[in-house]
Amino acid sequence: MEKMDTMALVDRGLFLPLMEEFYTIQGEGFHKGTAAYFIRVGGCDVGCHWCDVKESWNAETHPPTDIEHIVYNAAKYSDTIVVTGGEPLTWDMGPLTEKLKGQKLKTHIETSGAYPLTGSWDWICLSPKKNKLPVGRIYDEAHELKVIVYNKHDLIFAEEQAAKTNKDCILYLQPEWSVREKVTPMIVEYVMKNPKWKVSLQTHKYLNIP
Predict the structure, then answer these.
(1) Which residues pair with 54 in a beta bridge?
(2) Would you list which residues are annotated within the binding site for substrate?
(3) What residues are designated binding site?
(4) 183 class by beta-carbon count within 10 Å (0-12 exposed, 13-18 middle, 19+ buried)
(5) What's the confidence (pLDDT) of residue 54?
(6) Residue 118, CB half-sphere, CA atoms under 13 Å: how many?
(7) What is the pLDDT of residue 203?
(8) Binding region for [4Fe-4S] cluster
(9) CB–CB of 21/38 below 8 Å?
(10) What does the alpha-carbon distance between residue 87 and residue 2 come to, in Å, rounded to a whole number?
(11) pLDDT value of position 1
C-alpha cells in the first residue's frame, strides 16, 4: 500500500524520481557561463543512442522524492533552477514549479518536448529528438531551440524544427560530444552561411565541471 501511495504522489507531481541535484555553471545555450542549481529527474523513453546520461532513463532506479525537499535544497544555492533529465515532462511539473515560484526562484527547463508542457517556466530550452518529436504548444513557448548535431542529416532536421518555432526563439546547433571534432567545423560553416543559427558548445565539459 505504501508503494502504491508513493506512486500516486509521483503521478500527481508531488514526488519526483530524483536522480541528482547539484549547483554548477550552466554549460550550454543562452545562459552558458551563469551559475544555476540543476535538478535532474529520472525517466526517459526517447532513447537517444548518444545520450550521456543513460542512467537517467529508468525512473525506477531513482528514489521518489518529495518536491518540498527538492525545493528546500534548491533555494539554498541559487535563484536560477534548471530542471532537466531524463525527460522531465514525463511528469507533471506544475507542483514543482509552483513551489519554486513560491520561493521567488527562476525556473528553467531543458526538454525534448516529447510530452505535453506542464509547469510555469521563465525559460524553456527545447531540444527535439527524431525518435520522439515534440508535441503540443511547446514550439510556441520555447525560448531557445537546441538541436544536437551528430551528422549532416541533423542540419536538415534542425531547419524542419526551426520552422515550427516562434519568431523570438533563439536557434542553436550543438555538436554531439563524441563526434565534436568531426562535426564542429561543419556546424561553424553552416552557421556562417545561415546566421540565424548560433553555435552552442558544452562548455562545462571543457571546464571539467558537472
Answers:
(1) none
(2) 25-27, 40, 84, 210
(3) 25-27, 40, 44, 48, 50-52, 84, 86, 127-129, 210
(4) buried
(5) 86
(6) 17
(7) 83
(8) 44, 48, 51
(9) yes
(10) 26
(11) 38
Helix (H) or strand (E) holding 145: strand 144-149
* Strands across the sheet containing 170-175: 64-66, 15-25, 35-41, 80-84, 106-111, 123-126, 144-149, 170-175, 197-199
In words, the CATH class of domain 2-206 is alpha beta
The C-alpha cell at 177 is 560530444
Type of residue numbered 170: I
Residue 180 buriedness (CB in 10 A; 0-12 / 13-18 / 19+): middle
In 3D space, the residue among 105, 17, 110, 116 whose CA is nearest the CA of residue 58 turns out to be: 17
Ranges of the chain whose pLDDT falls below 50: 1
* Residue-wise pLDDT tens digits, 142-188: 999 999 999 999 999 999 999 999 999 999 999 999 999 999 999 99
**DSSP letters for 152-172:** THHHHHHHHHHTTS-TT-EEE
Which residues does the annotation place in the binding site for S-adenosyl-L-methionine? 50-52, 86, 127-129
Write out the three cell numbers for 142.
Answer: 520555447
So where are the chain's domains? 2-206
Measured CA to CA, the distance from residue 77 to residue 64 in angstroms comes to: 22
Q: Would you state the pLDDT for residue 50?
A: 76
Give the model's pLDDT for residue 2.
52
Q: What does the pLDDT read at residue 3?
A: 56
